[in-house]
Write a structure and sequence with these properties.
With about 400 residues, this protein is an all-alpha fold. About 80% of the residues lie in helices and about 0% in strands. It has a two-stranded parallel sheet with strand order 1-2. α2 packs across α3 and α4 packs antiparallel against α12. The longest helix has about 55 residues. The chain starts with 5 loop residues before the first strand and ends with a helix. About 5% of the residues have low confidence.
């Protein structure tokens, strides 16, 4: 079947010709604007961190004795104060370049890079398999299937090693942070002061055991969910720029950034919700600990009914909050899936289909149907992977 192309209208065709003639100047101008915007954002972020470093110690409110943050209490936002606190903790769990944790992190990063390179090869191989199938080239089709099975060995090994190294990182971080806490908690009678002389921390046992474990696993998971998607997004976009042109990628990035801004605006404050959940979990556990500690007095004065009421009250507050979080995630998950999976995917397929349907002035032909199919399948896989990576970053 002959390739049917749509000729652009004269006005739009002239605009395309003008762009091709001034492509270098326009590209340099757009790149300069992008770098300027990036520099402004970095400068504002640096100012925020410096301001937090100078004002956070004096402005930090004292936690209430009931464990609840008031209107002026600490917030769970991802802001300059959050990054300052996270930096202090990172210096504890990764003390230097000669530590075991640092080299585990480097090994983990190497496997992440290898996984991305394998993904690029698989995307190209996927297009070649479909192209050979469309052209009816049986030998090439079987050869590419053999390549597909061969690449599965390093791919599965890399995936298993990534899971193993992520768990090893979490254990190493937890060991380092637990040793640091034990060193300070068991020095100068701190454990006695926390339990008997100061009631600001009621659930020290949960903080040292359960919360430390969750934090360390979250840090290792956060690194994997930020570094690999960021690397994937950069490499996939570079490869797509070679396949469909940098102009299409630039336009697609504008659409992605705009829809990502809309998604950020309507995203609830899940950080605050998780912080409140941990606080309610701590109160519920503290009520049980207090019941065990004062069991003799409670039994003597027949106070089990009162204690049962306190337990049920704390548990009901926890469950109400968890159910509220689940309900909030329903509409947010729908919106996120629609934008990331379907809207971005549709825009990407339109981008891949432009060379097949429009006669662009100055553009070379894209070959036979096999070549067009190979290019479309490869680009579509890269686009979907890039959208998934960007969604994980968000």
């Amino acid at each position: 079947m002959a390739k049917q192309k749509v000729v652009l209208p004269p006005a739009l065709a002239n605009l395309v010709v003008q762009y091709v003639n001034n492509k270098k100047s326009i590209t340099r101008g757009a790149l300069s604007i992008a770098l300027l915007a990036l520099a402004i954002r970095i400068r504002s972020a640096t100012k925020g961190i410096k301001k937090a470093n100078s004002s956070a110690p004096a402005a930090a409110p004292r936690p209430s004795r009931k464990g609840k943050a008031g209107k002026g209490g600490p917030r769970a936002d991802v802001d300059a104060v959050f990054f300052k606190r996270l930096t202090r903790l990172l210096k504890i769990i990764i003390p230097g370049v000669s530590s075991k944790e640092f080299w585990l992190l480097n090994t983990f990063s190497g496997f992440l890079v290898g996984r991305t390179i394998l993904s690029l090869y698989v995307a190209d191989l996927d297009g070649k398999i479909v192209s050979a199938l469309v052209r009816g080239q049986g030998k090439q089709f079987l050869l590419y299937i053999v390549y597909w099975m061969a690449v599965a060995v390093p791919a599965t090994y890399t995936n298993s090693m990534l899971t193993f190294l992520q768990n090893k990182l979490a254990i190493a971080f937890r060991t380092r942070l637990t040793n640091y806490l034990h060193e300070h908690y068991l020095a100068d009678m701190t454990f006695y002061k926390v339990g008997n002389l100061d009631d600001r921390i009621k659930n020290a046992d949960q903080l040292i055991t359960q919360d430390v474990s969750k934090f360390c696993f979250a840090v290792s998971e956060l690194y994997a969910n930020l570094s690999k998607p960021a690397l994937d997004t950069i490499l996939y976009n570079l490869q797509l720029a070679r396949n469909v042109g940098s102009e299409g990628i630039f336009g697609l990035n504008i659409i992605v950034q705009s829809s990502a801004w809309v998604l950020r605006v309507f995203t609830p404050h899940f950080g605050k919700m998780v912080a409140e959940e941990q606080r309610l979990e701590g109160e519920f556990r503290y009520t049980h600990s207090r019941l065990i500690e004062n069991a003799e007095e409670i039994a003597l004065y027949a106070g089990e009914a009162v204690e049962k009421g306190n337990l049920e009250k704390n548990y009901s507050a926890l469950i109400r909050h968890v159910n509220m979080m689940f309900k909030t995630r329903i509409w947010h998950g729908m919106m996120e899936d629609f934008i990331i999976k379907y809207f971005w995917g549709a825009m990407g397929m339109v981008l891949c289909g432009i060379p097949a349907f429009f006669e662009l002035p100055g553009a070379a032909g894209s070959g036979d149907i096999g070549s067009r199919t190979q290019g479309f399948v490869t680009n579509r896989r890269l686009l979907l992977s890039s959208a998934d990576a960007f969604g994980r970053i968000m």
